[in-house]
Amino acid sequence: MILYKSRSVSLTTNHWMRTAGPWMPLVWASLVCCGWAEETPVVTTLREGNMVVHTVRSEFQSGETEIRVLLPERLDTGEKLPVLYLLPVEKQGEHRFGEGMREAQQLDLANKYRTICVAPAFSHLPWYADHPTDPEIRQESYLLDIVVPLVDRTYPTIAKPEGRLLVGFSKSGCGAVSLLLRHPDVFGKAAAWDAPLMMETPARYRSGEIYGTQENFEKYRMTSLLRKHGTELGPGRRLILTSYDAFREDHNSAHQLLTDLKVPHVHRDGPHRKHDWHSGWLAESVELLFADGDSSPTTEVSDPSP
Questions:
Q1: What is the distance between the alpha carbons of residues 237 and 82, in angstroms, rounded to a whole number?
Q2: How many CB atoms sit inside 10 A of residue 29's CB?
Q3: Residue 156: C-alpha distances to residues 81, 105, 290, 291 (Å)
Q4: Residue 135 Cα distances to 14, 59, 75, 142, 213, angstroms
């Protein structure tokens, strides 16, 4: 085992170079160029395909957490690829609502869109916020200061906002939207499916465990972020809202607010799907993320039933 340490993170890794696949020399070369030749956090190649796993220890999380990376089967020398961040809806090791990375593999997203898929894990239920007092529940900081820099330094990424896309549902759908609105200079687009976007207090779905207080929740409250930062997204349709299962009303209300604010976005109301990773919504959301579109607000109603 090799231990890599920096100011805020240490990486524990296993070394499987012989089974790493044809793209590993490029990954290794990128690490050497970054000055990590002797203490490279070499990744573990899993049997599902071109998957690698970083196990990290960070001051922002409790214990070790994994960052899974799915690469295209072919990486060309000098090629830069966008990164699709698959934001989990449960804490590490829990899969009640399926697995985003497994669905990405089944859909062959890495090859279809020539993208690097990244699924970070969190030690606590992810709401993508920093707790006001607990230093080991800083999920926003973990993603911004650990996950994104590690991915950009290790893989041939387009290290610009247009090269970083966010997708999630339910809690992680809220996370995708809040991360885009709070950090439009880091992320390019966000897609949320069936998320409780209109929450007014951290009193539901164990959100209080992460937000801590109402005062802290207000920093991440969707309606406030949309009003404050929505127009800062510019003329492109960087925000994509699709639904529905449990939170159709939330999405329709968020769409109406965005329309009133004249914020360009994509909104699709339906069809009805099961509230998990494997019900078909991810394929649609990723297609919309990678689509080129005009700057006009768009509503596409697939299921007009009440």
A1: 17
A2: 12
A3: 6, 20, 18, 22
A4: 28, 7, 38, 11, 15
Would the pTM count as exceeding 0.70?
A: yes
What is the tens place of the pLDDT at every residue in 228-245? 999 999 999 999 999 999
Q: Which domains does the chain have, with CATH numbers?
A: 2-300 (3.40.50.1820)
Predicted confidence at residue 298, as pLDDT, reads 54
What is the tens place of the pLDDT at every residue in 127-141? Answer: 999 999 999 999 999
Alpha-carbon distance of 285 to 113, in angstroms, equals: 13
Contact 139, 122 (CB under 8 A): yes
CA distance 130 to 38: 33
- Segment 50-54 mean pLDDT: 88
DSSP tag of 70? E
**Dist. CA 278–CA 102, nearest whole Å:** 9
